[in-house]
Amino acid sequence: MKLENHLLSILESMHDAVLVISKDSTIVYVNTAYSVQFGVPVHKIIGKKLSKVEPKARILEVLKTGQPLINDYSYLDSLNIHIFANMTPLIEKGELIGAVAIMKDISEFYALQEELQRYKTYSTQLEKQLNQKIFSLLESHAPGMRQAVEMAKKVADSEATVLLFGETGVGKEVFARAIHEASPRGDKPFVAINMASLPESLFESELFGFEEGAFTGSRKGGKRGLFELANGGTLFLDEIGELSLFLQAKLLRVLQERAFIKVGGTTIYPLDIRIIAATNRDLQKLMREGKFRQDLYYRLNIVPIHIPPVRERKQDLPILMNNILSELKSKYRKQVTVTQEVYEIFERYDWPGNVRELSNVLERMIAVCSKSYFVPEDVPPFVREGSVLSESPIEPSRQYASGTNALNLPALIEKTEKEMLEEVLRTSRTRTEAIRRLGISRKTFYQRLKKYNIQ
Ligand SMILES: Nc1ncnc2c1ncn2[C@@H]1O[C@H](COP(=O)(O)OP(=O)(O)OP(=O)(O)O)[C@@H](O)[C@H]1O
């Protein structure tokens, strides 16, 4: 069979568009696929000069250079399409006589790619918004806290092990959850283990689980351990500093080998978890005292984040109180506001139990409060007594100067305080009684009357 005789039929049977031009760029041939795909009737194009029809056509380059162009992307202005083409020079007896292009219309693919790109940008924006929302509970005006939150946001989408340092109740678990939720593992489990409350004898069965028949009376079907439950997600090892040296060694082995064996079994289970650990202890000191393994410390301390105590970020009290109160208000179905007096007491107290203590105190107050605002008597005595009384109240303007006053708590506090003063004055027989009921000093009382222009 002589292929040359069938060449035209072969070209016509192709699904890709074929275009042949002569040396002077005259279009000498296009196949049926060309006219079908590009919507150009054959008779309308044959004989035309491509350099006129499509001056930027890439095949003109091939005529110029005599070099082929392979997998070449271009946009055809005259047809308003995106194409991929292979273009080859036609050589006869060593002389360039024209060029051939075999093209694919990729406009649809191109449009899809653009759409995909649009969705990618959109999803990145949504992801950012989601991260903002996740971390919104940790909004802060204090430099130390902001640094900690920035670091948490940065490492969230990596696999890096994070070690959270901070006193009890500062919000280490809140941080760990935020990092987990903002991470690619966010839709997988978040499992928290408190090392301090885990008895040594139960460590292995709780963490690794056990196989059926592991010991007399063991549960049928065995038991899944916390490592297995957290697989694919994040494991939060809280109070890591409380772990005995013996258990530290066991934990280290699992973290190093990234695999574990259940109690009473031989099967090796791979471990696909991200570790976030936390401590309120000085691990370096524990290491010096020989109470914490160096190798475990270095394995956990990849990204250390220090969360400052509440006493070092008192400018965040309005945010924290607002976060906590909004939950408590719906839990207790009550509306309460914080008066300036109460806020000042809170501000002077050092909150050794940090956010947890603040949360407990507010819950205790809301549970027993029958008014729509808190007065100093509502504050538990240990907080009132623990706050060093200052007779020069902090001006709200100074207090909030550094922050974005998004909650407008100061204005709310002032409004409530004024209303409360008026009500107590109205319902007290004497000013001394009003002062006693308000639980403030005589001096502060008269300062407030002056401030609010109350006669
Ligand atoms: N920014 C915050 N806004 C509102 N509530 C918070 C915030 N941070 C922490 N909390 C609340 O304070 C309490 C203590 O937080 P968390 O358990 O995260 O602290 P922790 O540092 O892990 O404590 P511990 O060291 O005792 O384990 C929790 O009830 C938590 O919901």
List keywords for this structure.
single chain; 455 residues; alpha/beta; Beta-Lactamase; Rossmann fold; Helicase, Ruva Protein, domain 3; five-stranded antiparallel beta sheet; five-stranded parallel beta sheet; 46% helix; 17% strand; elongated; binds adenosine-5'-triphosphate
Account of the 3D structure:
The protein has 455 residues and is an alpha/beta fold. It has 3 domains: 16-105, Beta-Lactamase (2-Layer Sandwich), CATH 3.30.450.20; 140-308, Rossmann fold; 311-451, Orthogonal Bundle (Helicase, Ruva Protein, domain 3). It contains 21 helices and 16 strands. The longest helix has 28 residues, at 107-134. The protein is elongated. Residues 389-407 have low confidence and may be disordered.
Rg (C-alpha, Å): 37 Å
User: At the first level of CATH, what is the class of the largest domain?
Assistant: Alpha Beta
Helix count, DSSP H or I runs of 4 or more residues:
21
The strand line-up of the biggest sheet is 2-1-5-4-3
Strand count? 16
Mean pLDDT: 87
N-to-C CA distance:
116 Å
Q: Which cofactors or ions or other ligands sit in this model?
A: adenosine-5'-triphosphate
The CATH topology of the largest domain: Rossmann fold
**What is the count of distinct domains?**
3
Helix content: 40-55%
Q: Can you identify the CATH superfamily of the largest domain? A: P-loop containing nucleotide triphosphate hydrolases
| SS-derived structural category | alpha/beta
The dominant shape is: elongated
Low-confidence stretches: 389-407
The second-level CATH architecture of the largest domain is 3-Layer(aba) Sandwich
